[in-house]
Specification:
By secondary structure, this protein is of the alpha+beta class. The chain has one domain: Outer membrane efflux proteins (OEP). It is built from eleven helices and four strands, in the order H-H-H-E-E-H-H-H-H-H-E-E-H-H-H. Strands 1-2-3-4 form a four-stranded antiparallel beta sheet, with no helix packed on it. Helix 3 packs antiparallel against helix 4 and helix 4 packs antiparallel against helix 5. It starts with a helix and ends with a helix.
């Protein structure tokens, strides 16, 4: 007895000696420094709305974005991943609580009396056939003295938050893609309208050239050149069909709707075109508004908890167990007092010589935390870069649209004056065709420039963290 006591004391001493290694190593994760403002957000408006950057007045966008959020495969997959992460977090929390189980059994045994020998004292007999009836309730609990299970639960909860942030980022990305596709569709329609106007103008020149040719005052070459200008515009109109096909195909994939449904939504009347002002924002708001930054921060928190859990493996693990049950060899004796059986136990498991296994786990967890911190820094600076790019694109696209609009007005005026001078005999037909060619291309360029300005605002909406409130409230 004394020897066993000494052995137990020695084992406990060695186990406690394993604790001197100390807590998890500290990994510096200082927040990355942020600039005070965006370098390219020169024309940002404090009163502008983030929601207004999306085409929320367009019924096609509202219908298709709600369809994508409700039934889009990408959205539903992300939602399933969130549920999976939450289930794992609930499982980690349940590990900290006792595990209680119950069992019942009926067992029959038959023994050969010869196994006990033939020289048994007289009067002693064995029941060679026996049936036992048993039922037990047992419980096992780890009190988690050193916090290993608590750290694992914190890690699982942080990963659940990261999955939720990932799902939010996917939702914003899908909304932005739908918005871009709708804007592209409206832009193609505007370009087609401009090209149709070009065809009408070219056909009027064809008619004028034909009259002059029949009158013998102009060569037939003038009519051919006018017809060529009209065919150029018709060819460009025909090329727009492929762009529409690509837009519809992308929206089908995003919304899980049929092509007919998508085209029906896009066929709704477009609202008046507009380019709202860009809202002002500070770089620090990205830390709370960008889902990808939030997800990276949650994963950093999870890696910190994993490091703590790995370090806790240095310490002993205690467990308490108890069982209460019934055991009888006759069904009528199951509820007798003598049939009650039970047990209670406590156990300790401590590392003595693991030859560096636990330290290797700690080193790996520390490296994972450093990687998670760099991933978080990368997400922060990616967000800053996206915002800078988006603000710059908005400014550049607005400038392009302004210049393209002025070009369109100037080219239309020049074509009108050239036509007047030609009819008055002050200029030749080639001058009219050149002026008309410039006016024709300027109308399509202005429509495309407007589309790029609207698309740049969608990129800014996504870069600043987006907001689903307007879409959800209208749904």
């Amino acid at each position: 007895m004394k020897r066993s006591h000494l052995l137990l004391t020695a084992a406990a001493s060695l186990a406690v000696s394993a604790c001197v290694a100390g807590p998890a190593p500290e990994i510096a994760t200082a927040p990355p420094p942020l600039p005070q403002s965006y370098a390219l957000a020169i024309s940002a408006d404090e009163t502008a709305s983030l929601d207004a950057l999306l085409p929320v007045r367009d019924p096609a966008f509202m219908a298709l974005s709600r369809a994508a959020l409700d039934s889009g495969p990408t959205i539903l997959e992300a939602a399933a991943r969130v549920e999976s992460a939450r289930a794992r977090a609930r499982g980690s929390g349940a590990n900290r609580r006792p595990s209680i189980s119950a069992d019942a059994s009926i067992a029959g045994t038959r023994t050969n009396p010869a196994q006990f020998g033939s020289n048994l004292p007289s009067g002693i007999a064995f029941d060679t056939e026996q049936v036992s009836y048993g039922a037990n309730i047992s419980a096992v609990w780890d009190p988690d003295i050193f916090g290993r299970l608590r750290a694992q639960e914190r890690s699982a909860l942080s990963l659940s938050e990261a999955a939720g942030a990932d799902a939010a980022a996917i939702r914003l990305s899908v909304i932005a893609e739908v918005a871009g596709a709708v804007i592209d569709w409206r832009t193609v329609s505007a370009r087609e309208d401009a090209l149709n106007e070009d065809v009408v103008a070219a056909e009027s020149l064809v008619a004028l050239a034909d009259i002059r040719e029949r009158a013998g005052i102009a060569p037939g070459f003038d009519r051919v050149r006018a017809e060529t200008a009209a065919e150029v515009s018709r060819s460009r109109i025909a090329g727009l069909a492929s762009e529409r096909a690509r837009i519809v195909g992308r929206l089908v994939a995003l919304t899980a709707q049929s092509g007919q449904t998508v085209r029906g939504a896009l066929g709704q009347s477009a609202p008046p075109a507009g380019t709202p002002a860009a809202p002002a924002s500070t770089p620090s708001t990205l830390l709370t508004s960008r889902p990808d930054v939030q997800a990276a921060a949650a994963r950093l928190a999870a890696s910190d908890a994993d490091l703590y859990a790995a370090a806790a493996n240095r310490f002993p693990q205690f467990s308490l167990s108890a069982a209460l049950g019934l055991l009888a060899f006759d069904i009528s004796d199951v509820f007798d007092d003598d049939a009650i059986v039970g047990s209670a136990a406590g156990s300790l498991l401590a590392p003595l010589f693991d030859f560096g296994r636990i330290q290797a786990q700690i080193d790996g967890a520390a490296a994972d935390k450093r990687a998670a911190f760099q991933s978080y820094r990368g997400a922060v600076f990616t967000a800053l870069g996206d915002a800078e790019t988006a603000y710059g694109l908005v400014a550049a696209a607005d400038q392009e649209f302004t210049v393209a609009t002025r070009e369109q007005a100037s080219a239309a005026r020049a074509a009108e004056l050239a036509d007047v001078r030609f009819r008055a005999g002050l200029s030749n037909f080639l001058t009219v065709l050149d002026a008309r060619r410039v006016a024709d291309s300027s109308g399509e360029r202005a429509a495309a420039a407007r589309g790029r300005a609207e698309r740049a605002r969608v990129l800014l909406w996504q870069a600043l963290g987006g907001n689903e409130g307007r879409i959800d409230s209208d749904g």
